[in-house]
Specification:
By secondary structure, this protein is an alpha+beta fold. Keywords: Aminopeptidase, Hydrolase, Protease, Serine protease.
Length: 649
């Protein structure tokens, strides 16, 4: 750690407590709310409260006090705020409180908690979803009044591929169902949707008589990666099919003229991976119409629901590491990215947005903040919060953009995060997961911790990543470990041209697909690196296809089903070619890249005589580095720094 005059500069592992991050905003009139979360090391979990942000002068004040409040939604009449609140134990429940403040009233007591609250147009009812467990599971009583604590839980009968999901658990014995509540009435709500399939993303139709949800296509009769939009009568009854989507779908919302919009992908070309997400429109009796171009425009669905505003629809779009808020004309068909009006763009990552009349607000990250609330006006964006002040006071390491070309002339884009001092600095090539994801123009805690410890950190978006056009993302489909490797190394070589970078002390690391790349490159190009750190990796496609929660389609999508090809594309096959120290790091309950992937790689490396260490985190899922228990995140950072201090000294 660098020190000047006794003061510590930069981000240390324990400083994850300074990662104060606002969630998607809610705005109505002058009321602007956001759930603001931060890791709490003492409690070893994240703490989250609702805060009111001043639209006039900026700054914020507490609206609730947690410990885990989230997902605020303001009623159409502006009088009420519904939100989710979780106690120290158990899932979140739905609460409501007056918009002017006051006591929060609990509305639900679901066994596994509530999700996705949505107000009816009359501001008297709320829709939500909740997972309803089979009797005798997840702490509930069985038919004889006994709980799992008093007897062994019954076995699960599994007949489908899609029976579980990482960081969530088993699915088929606790379907997500739709509920409608009278906010001011009495009694427990009854589910509107059956237990045969999950529903998600409820939105009320403008008439207030129906609730539209996303369901698996054909009502989940067989495994599918495509969705339908259906409407359930709010008072109960059979659902009505509104649209069959060409692929995945999420976040339906009605426009002022009754048009139903949603974000989603298309699988009509037979490729189910590396698909750009688009904005679609549905009118009665017609097929969904794609408003955005499939090749150039990639909607970031994780940023939230599209917002109809006048004759446009606002969406977040991925663009060369940025996530920009752009406007899509309601009349558009296959509109290219460059034609979409930019409301907030450049070197930012929009992670949430909302609008009320002419007021448009976003939660936006930059390389200097994990996220701030920003209001967009005629005079440009105005930042209302300063959640990154503590991080900034400690010192945020400088980020420089890198542009270069691969050996075949293809452009490669990324960043270099630099430590303080003149160097020459040891360097870490950090490869992101996905692969169809993007390194963003956003504060990256891992790079900041490593750079603060004295390492230059190279990150970027090789072919296979999102945000550079669908062809860029699909360049490695059925061709892993080829041009993506060229791009990873080309970006590293660009950084190594600098005199303040030590080309003799280079390490490679990454997680998930980045872990795959680490194992692959360490075997194919061991002379380039002193050591490797491979985390939650795909190491063997043959077993991944059956053991991963998504393996049944993901392995075939990226590699194929031929056993020899699966073997050829697996880092495990080349473990004996690794000649550098190698760390295998994994989470015990990872269902995305299951533990056996790490175990097989560790054994193969040890049997080949490689200097190998295996670090295993109890109880964690694939999401350890992003949302794992805070103490584990700090312990992981400490282990990373210890590894590189021993290998790159």
């Amino acid at each position: 750690m660098l020190k000047v005059s006794g003061t510590v500069f930069g981000m240390r592992p324990a400083d994850i407590e300074d990662l104060v991050v606002p969630g998607p905003p809610a705005v109505r009139g002058d009321l602007l709310l956001a759930a603001v979360s931060r890791p709490d090391l003492d409690a070893d979990r994240s703490h989250s409260t609702l805060r009111r942000v001043s639209l006039a002068g900026g700054g914020d004040v507490p609206w609730t006090y947690g410990p885990r409040d989230s997902s605020p939604v303001i009623s159409p009449d502006g009088r009420w705020v519904a939100f989710l609140r979780a106690a120290e134990e158990g899932g979140p429940q739905l609460y409501v409180m007056p918009a002017e403040g006051g006591e929060a009233r609990k509305l639900t007591t679901f066994a596994l908690g509530a999700e996705e609250p949505a107000w009816a147009p009359d501001s008297q009812r709320l829709a939500c979803t909740a997972r309803v467990p089979e009797a005798g599971r997840y702490g509930t009583e069985d038919a004889d009044g006994r709980t799992p604590e008093s007897l062994a839980e019954a076995p699960r009968r599994i007949t489908r591929f899609d029976y579980r999901f990482d960081d969530l658990g088993f699915l088929r014995d606790r379907p997500k169902r739709l509920f409608v509540l009278d906010v001011f009435g009495e009694g427990e709500p009854e589910p509107l949707s059956p237990a045969d399939y999950d529903v998600k993303s409820p939105v009320w139709a403008p008439d207030g008589e129906r609730v539209v949800v996303v369901v698996p296509q054909e009502y989940d009769r067989v495994e599918t990666l495509s969705n339908d939009l259906v409407a359930f009568p709010a008072g109960g009854g059979e659902p009505e099919l509104l649209a069959s989507c060409p692929g995945s779908a999420d976040h339906p919302v009605f426009g002022p003229d009754g048009t139903l919009y949603f974000t989603g992908t298309s699988h009509t070309d037979g490729v189910v991976v590396a698909a750009n997400c688009g904005l679609y429109a549905v009118v009665a009796g017609a097929e969904p119409r794609r408003l955005t171009d499939v090749e150039t425009a990639d909607v970031e669905s994780a940023a939230g629901t599209a917002v109809p505003l006048g004759d446009e629809i606002l969406v977040a779009v991925r663009n060369r590491g940025a996530v920009e808020l752009r406007a899509v004309p309601a009349s558009a068909t296959d509109a290219k990215l460059d034609s979409l009006r930019v409301l907030h763009g450049g070197q930012v990552a929009v992670h949430g947005f909302a609008a009320d009349g002419d007021t448009v607000v976003v939660v936006a990250a930059t390389v200097e903040t994990p996220g701030e609330v920003v209001v967009l006006g005629a005079d440009g964006p105005r930042v209302l919060t300063d959640y990154a002040k503590t991080l900034r006071d400690k010192g945020i390491r400088r980020v420089e953009e890198l542009n270069t070309t691969a050996p075949d002339g293809y452009p490669v884009h990324g960043w270099l995060v630099l430590p303080e001092g003149d160097g020459p600095h040891p360097v870490l090539r950090v490869v992101h997961g996905g692969p169809f994801a993007q390194q963003e123009w956003a504060f990256f805690d891992e790079a900041q911790v490593y750079a603060s410890a004295g390492y230059a950190v190279v990150v970027g978006n090789p072919r296979g990543s999102a945000g550079y056009g669908q062809a860029h993302g699909r360049a490695i489909v059925q061709d892993l470990g080829t041009v993506d490797v060229d791009d990873v190394l080309a970006l590293l070589d660009k950084a190594l041209e600098r005199p303040d970078i030590d080309s003799s002390r280079v390490g490679i690391m990454g997680g998930s697909y980045g872990g795959f790349m680490t194992g692959w490159i360490a075997a194919k190009h061991p002379e380039r690196f002193r050591a490797a750190w491979s985390e939650r990796a795909v190491n063997a496609w043959d077993s991944f296809a059956g053991s991963s929660d998504i393996g049944y389609f993901f392995a075939a999508g990226y590699v194929g089903s031929d056993p020899e090809e699966l073997r050829k594309r697996s880092p495990l096959t080349y473990a004996a070619d690794v000649r550098i120290p190698f760390a295998v790091v994994h989470s015990e309950h990872d269902w995305r890249c299951p533990l056996e992937q790490a175990q097989r790689q560790f054994v193969a490396l040890r049997q080949a005589g490689v200097d190998t260490e295996f670090l295993l985190f109890p109880g964690e899922s694939h999401e350890l580095t992003r949302s794992g228990r805070p103490r584990h995140r700090v312990q992981r950072f400490a282990a990373v720094l210890d590894w590189w201090s021993r290998r790159l000294s």
